[in-house]
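User: I'm putting together a teaching handout on how sequence relates to shape, and I'd like one worked example. Could you take Translocation protein SEC66 from Candida albicans, show the sequence you're using, and then write out its predicted structure as tokens right after it?

Assistant: Happy to. First the sequence, then the structure tokens directly below it.
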Amino acid sequence: MAEETVTPEPEIVKISVFTPLIYVCVVLSIFITFSIIYRKRRLQSLTKVEPLFKENYTAVLYQHLKDQYTNKDLPKDQRPHEKVMKAALLRRAVEAIRRSMKLKENEPVFNKLYQNGLIGDDIFKQYQIQIKFQELELKDIVTECETYKKGWVQTFFPLAQEICFNEALRRRLKASDDRAETFSKLWETYADKSEKSLESAKKVESKKTVEAVKAEETKDKVAEISEKVEDVKEEKEQEQEADEKHQGGDNDSSKSKKKKKNSKAKKN
């Protein structure tokens, strides 16, 4: 009989129960470290981005007052009153509304410039980050408003919006007054310059007229002098002609006298 081939039995690898748990823990730890590093780098990149607006002093002031308001170690007299906190929160909301409205007004401009390639990715990213920051600012204001009085948000934001509009109107009126002052100053300066230029032009014209009069006078004098010289020349010529005629007459008389003497001598 042929020998039967014995098929080797596969070895059964025994895996511990802790192996998948360790694998899952390693994967989770890698994922967590990656997310932490990614968030840190993203936060660093966001902190490097310069904001479009200046520092929000109203938010800084409110935070400072809130630290004093919530500090129980301070006596009650040194802590700010609740009305002061509400007024500071209202000022913070007014500034947040103003900035958010400014961003919404300039949104089509930024989109158009970015589509045409006139601004880079960094500026457009800066604009998007500023929009998200303002949204977070408004949400924080809503939560702070609810801490003082529930349902106050319904009257709080319309009041803040009205204050924002009134301040914008005041700024425009002030800007128009400032423009009027600047234009009046420019008008005065240009009027002074025009007057000075007119005076200088008049002086130049008067000088030109004086010079023209002097030139005409000199021409007249030169003409008179030339006429006098010509008269003197004519007089001299006439005198010379008269002298020549006189000399010719004397010669004729002397010749006639000589002829008479000769005739008398012949007769004698």
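A couple of points you could highlight for students: The mean pLDDT is 81. Helices lie at 18-48, 57-70, 82-105, 107-115, 121-148, 153-267.
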